[in-house]
Amino acid sequence: MITAADTERLFATLAAANPQPLPELQYSSAFELLVAVMLSAQATDAGVNKATPALFARAPTPRAMLALGLEQVTLHIRSIGLFRTKARNLLQTCALLLERHGGEVPRARAALEALPGVGRKTANVVLNVAFGEPTIAVDTHVFRVANRTGLAPGRNPLQVEQLLLRRIPAAYLRQAHHWLILHGRYVCLARKPLCERCSVSAWCEYGRHLQSPSARSSQRPPGGP
Prior knowledge:
This protein has 225 residues and is mainly alpha-helical. The chain folds into two domains: 97 residues, Helix-hairpin-Helix base-excision DNA repair enzymes (C-terminal) (Endonuclease Iii, domain 2); 102 residues, Hypothetical protein, domain 2 (Endonuclease III, domain 1, Orthogonal Bundle), CATH 1.10.340.30.
């Protein structure tokens, strides 16, 4: 695990490069954000963004989504993985938003996680992005970056989330999961991290290992200098 000082330097560097990181999902309300995040499970943000403009044009509210009906919702999201299950969950969620919350997206974690198709990660995204809560949504990118860097090693997303919440300096906590997601998506790649392009490799356990004399020696070709 990297030190508190290294953690501070790591986030200061990410913040300096991108002071106001934004989610890549497209939305214009808390409801549209909730829908987009629900649809993004086991799908790419780019794929969701291709499907949602037409859907949101016809159904920007829970009531309008219910009126659109299962067949039409399914047709709008058919390019997204698990679209049939997601369409059913989406309509059930809209019904509960109207029944329990006056058609508004709730700000409480328990209420969010009680909605069909909404787990802890989705709830964390909504709480953070829509309501400004200092939560950490641990997706595959955040999980990988947290473990690989030594920032918050853990065996499962909940362990990583809890450790990140304890270790990230308060000044960076509100934006932290955006920086980590973007870093994992574009630099700290799963199969071959782009360490030569990484701005925080000096404070990363994996990056420092690659820079060590023993690691550099092991990477030399046989017979090389």
